[in-house]
C-alpha cells in the first residue's frame, strides 16, 4: 500500500511566483515569508516522498466557465504550464504518475464521486507556485505528481463537508494502492482574501488563526461552514480553504503539527504554510462518516 507521510498546506499567490523568479528571498518585504518555508524543506528532505498529490483550484488555464467540473483529476504522463498573463515565467512540465492517477479515479468513482478524468491537463499558478516553494530550484522535479482540481470559481461549489468526504476517500484510495510509494498531500490556496468588490483587500486574521488551529486538532469543525459562511468570514477567494480541507481529511484522524508560518500581507492575501505529519508516518485509514 502507499504510505501517506504527511500533508502540506500552502498559499499559491501569483506574486509569490514573481518574487521567486526575481530572487527576492532576502528582500525586506519577502524574507519573513520565504523563511517560513525553510523548515518545510528540511521536513521534505527527511520524509523523501515519491509522489505529491496536489489539490488546487484552476483559475481558467485548463477549465473555464463554459466547462467547470466540480472535481477533476489528471491522468497524464506529464503536466504542462502556459502563460496566464501574470508575468510569471512558464514552468517546465511536471512528471505525472498515470498508474496512481487511474487508481485514484477508479477508487473515487467506486466511492460514488463523479470525477472528470483528464488525460491532458494544463496546470496553473495554483499548482506551479507551490511546487516551486516546496522544491526550490529552476525546473527541479524530484517527485511525480497527481493534480486534483477543485472548482472554486463557478457557483455552485462543493461544500466543506463534501470536500472533507472527498479527502477521506482519497486517503482510502491511497491506502489501497498496491505499490510502496511515499505520498505527500499538498493543499494549496488562501487564506483569507478578496481581490475585488467593496471588500477588496479583506483579511480576517481571527478566522485564519481559527482555521489553522482546527485543521490540526478538529478538522471536521470546518465542515459546519457553508460556502456563504466561508465567503463572509474569509472573502470571496477565501473559499480556497476547501483545498486545505481535502488535504487534511486524507491524512486520517491524528496528525502532528510539524511547522506553521502565517504571514500578512502578501498581495492582499493572508499567506500561510503548514506541515502535518501522519502518526508514525502512515495513514490511519479513517473511514468514519461525518
Written account of the structure:
- This protein has nine helices and ten strands.
- Strands 6-3-7-2-8-1-10-9 form an eight-stranded mixed beta sheet, with helices on both faces. Strands 4-5 form a two-stranded antiparallel sheet.
- The longest helix is centred in the middle third of the chain and has 16 residues, at 160-175.
- α1 crosses α5 and α4 (98-110) packs across α6.
- The chain has helices spanning 14-21, 31-35, 38-47, 98-110, 125-134, 160-175, 205-217, 227-234, 241-250, and strands spanning 3-10, 51-56, 71-74, 78-79, 94-95, 116-118, 144-150, 182-188, 255-266, 269-278.
- The protein has 290 residues and is an alpha/beta fold.
- It is globular, with a radius of gyration of 17 Å.
- The protein has one domain: LigB-like (Protocatechuate 4,5-dioxygenase, Chain B, 3-Layer(aba) Sandwich), CATH 3.40.830.10.
Q: How would you concisely characterize the structure shown here?
A:
Helix content is 32%, strand content 21%. The protein has nine helices and ten strands.
Amino acid at each position: 500500500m502507499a504510505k501517506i507521510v504527511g500533508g502540506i498546506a500552502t498559499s499559491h499567490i501569483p506574486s509569490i511566483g514573481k518574487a521567486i523568479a526575481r530572487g527576492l528571498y532576502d528582500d525586506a518585504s519577502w524574507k519573513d515569508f520565504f523563511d517560513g518555508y525553510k523548515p518545510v524543506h528540511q521536513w521534505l528532505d527527511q520524509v523523501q516522498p515519491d509522489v505529491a498529490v496536489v489539490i488546487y483550484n484552476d483559475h481558467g488555464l485548463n477549465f473555464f466557465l463554459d466547462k467547470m467540473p466540480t472535481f477533476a483529476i489528471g491522468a497524464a504522463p506529464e503536466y504542462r504550464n502556459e502563460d496566464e498573463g501574470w508575468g510569471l515565467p512558464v514552468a517546465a512540465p511536471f512528471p505525472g504518475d498515470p498508474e496512481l492517477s487511474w487508481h485514484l479515479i477508479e477508487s473515487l468513482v467506486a466511492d460514488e464521486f463523479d470525477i472528470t478524468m483528464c488525460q491532458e491537463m494544463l496546470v496553473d499558478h495554483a499548482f506551479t507556485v507551490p511546487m516551486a516553494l516546496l522544491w526550490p530550484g529552476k525546473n527541479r522535479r524530484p517527485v511525480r505528481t497527481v493534480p486534483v482540481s477543485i472548482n472554486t470559481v463557478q457557483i455552485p461549489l462543493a461544500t466543506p463537508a463534501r470536500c472533507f468526504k472527498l479527502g477521506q476517500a482519497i486517503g482510502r484510495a491511497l491506502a489501497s494502492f498496491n505499490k510502496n510509494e511515499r505520498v505527500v498531500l499538498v493543499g494549496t490556496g488562501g487564506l483569507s482574501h478578496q481581490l475585488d468588490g467593496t471588500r477588496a483587500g479583506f483579511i480576517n486574521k481571527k478566522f485564519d488563526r481559527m482555521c489553522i488551529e482546527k485543521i490540526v486538532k478538529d478538522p471536521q469543525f470546518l465542515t459546519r461552514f457553508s460556502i456563504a459562511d466561508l465567503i463572509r468570514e474569509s472573502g470571496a477567494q477565501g473559499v480556497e480553504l476547501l483545498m486545505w480541507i481535502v488535504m487534511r481529511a486524507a491524512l486520517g484522524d491524528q496528525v502532528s503539527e510539524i511547522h506553521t508560518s502565517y504571514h500578512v500581507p502578501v498581495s492582499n492575501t493572508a499567506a500561510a504554510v503548514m506541515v502535518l505529519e501522519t502518526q508514525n508516518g502512515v495513514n490511519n485509514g479513517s473511514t468514519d462518516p461525518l
